[in-house]
Amino acid sequence: MKRASGRVAFTGLLAALALALSFLEGLLPPLPMMPPGAKLGLSNIAVMYAAGSLGLPTALFLSVFKGLFALMTRGAMAGIMSLSGGLCSTVVLWPLLNKTKASLGVVGVCGALAHNAAQLGAAYVLTSTSVLFYVPFLLVFGVLTGLVTGLVLKVTLPPLERLKRFLG
Fold first, then answer.
1. Could you tell me the residue range of the domain that residue 18 belongs to?
2. pTM for this model (two decimals)
3. Residue 72 pLDDT exceeds 70
4. Can you give the CATH number for the domain in which 153 is found?
5. What is the mean pLDDT of residues 58-73?
6. Within a 10 A sphere around the Cβ of 6, how many other Cβ atoms?
7. Is residue 48 within 8 Å of 71, Cβ to Cβ?
8. What's the total number of domains in the chain?
9. Per-residue pLDDT tens for 44-55?
10. Per-residue pLDDT tens over the stretch 134-145
11. How far is CA 82 from CA 7, 10, 12, 40, 43, in A?
């Protein structure tokens, strides 16, 4: 019984961490030369951890939770962009973390690029072909932010694992 309740508690903590990181990212000024709404993706660290440690269903839950948070706090477009990017990224992250020996930096880059590609696809469908102008910027930005999120996850992995063990 402790194991199930500990898993639920830990998932709740990861959800809170993702929302807190998303909120903090929202306080940062817009990044120069980037599309409106471009963010570092720090909240995806919680999803990356969940995909590698707790499994695909938990990681997908966190992605949907983050998307609903974006929907409620920033509107429909932000919610759609968050959901499309988050779900696509999670589906890419899970096999990389569980079926390969890819480094967290490589996993972060692949997740960021998948996130950007899904968001670009959603923006293309919802707006116009002019969003394709952002592809080169998103490729460079995805590599940089993916490396950052992979590095941050690598640094925070030991305390997250200790907390997971503590909660059972």
1. 2-167
2. 0.90
3. yes
4. 1.10.1760.20
5. 95
6. 16
7. no
8. 1
9. 999 999 999 999
10. 888 889 989 999
11. 25, 22, 19, 13, 11
Contact 82, 102 (CB under 8 A): no
**Residue 166 neighbours by CB under 8 Å, 6+ apart:** none
> Cα torsion at 88, 89, 93, 96 (round to 10°)?
70
Distances (CA, A) of 83 to 3, 45, 115, 127, 156: 29, 16, 9, 17, 25
Least confident of 5-9, 46-50, 54-58: 5-9
Structure-token match 């002019």, residue found: 130
Q: What percent of the chain has pLDDT over 70?
A: 95
Q: How far, in Å, are 8, 12, 97, 167, 168 from residue 3 at the CA level?
A: 9, 14, 23, 8, 5
Mean pLDDT of the chain: 90
Take residue 143 and report the two structure tokens written for it. 């590599």
Instruction: Copy the structure tokens of residue 135.
Output: 């592809």
